[in-house]
Amino acid sequence: MTIDAWSGRVRSVDMSAAREQGDCACCKQRKFEYLSGEKTPATAILCGRDAVQIAAPAGGNRIDLRELAGRLRNLRPQHNEFLLRFSVDPLTLTLFSDGRAIVKGTRDPAVARGLYAKYIGA
Description:
CATH superfamily of the largest domain: TATA-Binding Protein
Structural class: alpha+beta
Low-confidence stretches: none
Shape: elongated
Number of domains: 2
Distance between the termini: 39 Å
Order of helices and strands: EEHHEEHEEEEH
Number of helices: 4
CATH topology of the largest domain: TATA-Binding Protein
Number of strands: 8
């Protein structure tokens, strides 16, 4: 099904023949790795926000935001128990304790990952 949000047009497309002929992990094998959280994209450009979201690294290790704020004190980070935010002009990085981050001021995933790697780690 496709939905055109601008016009409100809804259209159904019959994909049953393609599903039967192919070997799609979702359609044929019923594996939903992204929905279940087994797989996540490393980055996502946030449409209309001039920002890139970086997914939490695998392993689920929590980040000690207070300790990181101490290491980054020359950048004057703001933090609370939920997030840490600092700017390296013209970019602003907001980091969550699970490792997810949003880098505002770019739509380039490579720039966002570079900032994350430099100040947070790979």
